[in-house]
Amino acid sequence: MLHVGLQHFLILGALLFSLGLVTVATRRNAVGVLMGVELILNGANVNFVAFNHYVTGGVSGQVFALFVIVLAAAEAAVGLAIVLAVFQSFRSIDVRLADTMRE
Amino acid sequence: MSRKIYTWVVLAALVVTFVGALALEVARGAFLPGDLALGPFTLGDLLFYGFAALTLAGAGATAFSKNIVYSAVGLLGALTGAGAIYVFLSADFLAVTQLLVYIGGVLVLILFAVMLTNRITEVTVSNVSLGLPSGLALLAATAPVLAFVAIATPWPERTPDPLAPTTRAIGNAFLTGWLLPFELASLVLLATLIGAVIIARKELKADEPDPSLR
Prior knowledge:
The structure holds 2 protein chains of 2 kinds. Chain A contains 3 helices and no strands. Chain A has helices spanning 6-26, 30-56, 60-90. The longest helix of chain A is centred in the C-terminal third of the chain and has 31 residues, at 60-90. Chain A is elongated. Chain B has a two-stranded antiparallel ribbon with strand order 1-2. Chain B starts with a helix and ends in a 14-residue tail after the last helix. Chain B is mainly α. Chain B is built from 7 helices and 2 strands; from the N terminus they run H-E-E-H-H-H-H-H-H. In chain B, strand 1 (37-38) and strand 2 form a beta hairpin. Chain B is globular, with a radius of gyration of 22 Å. At the A-B interface, helix 1, helix 2 and helix 3 of A face strand 2, helix 2, helix 3, helix 4 and helix 5 of B.
């Protein structure tokens, strides 16, 4: 297992996913939760590209990863806009405090 | 404190430069000297382990740091390391896109949100996590399972192609087989742009004077 192969990349993706999951689950700060989502998406991307290189060939996995990057950028923009809106009405971005649907 | 952050920023800039140069070399058709042996490892292996360590250290800092600014810097390390990992997988265009979109765009956006939503004086208490034990328990529950699946499954592996530039192939794929998702992505981005502006703008109460008119 010394020489780098498919399994190494898969384990790296799995660890990235797990750490992102932990971030999403434990953070009380909404921006921290969004950082965790970025980590999860990166773990998935590493898997896409690794399978593309070692199993399928071609570029379809890389194209998928590019779509993931595009949607992650869109998600970050909308998510942070929501965080700013929540901050304006609750004066805090603690995810436990935002518990009313309207003012 | 500020000196520490400065050191981190310099380190991160160095890594970004290195990854960019590496991706450029791969785009020119160069490949890592995989046969250069250093003990039981080759140079490519050592570089992989180094970048994997950078990625995981950054992800760990993001997950467990008490300070949200350190979390953001950790995310910088994780995203940069993942971008470097793409270079090992013959995905040069993807690596550069990762640098441009994630580090140049998303990370700056996240830092903006951190600065806009935290009063700077209380930045250390602004990232309180729900509890280290529960987080570690979740990590211990998910990571070994996923790693076991990755190792134990007999993936139908083939001999990987040699590292080569992929930009032309990706461009062809986008404008032939993936044309519809490609155009839909641009629609999604437009909707996101408008939606983010509408959500984030300040609403004026009816009895408040417009501050921009003062």
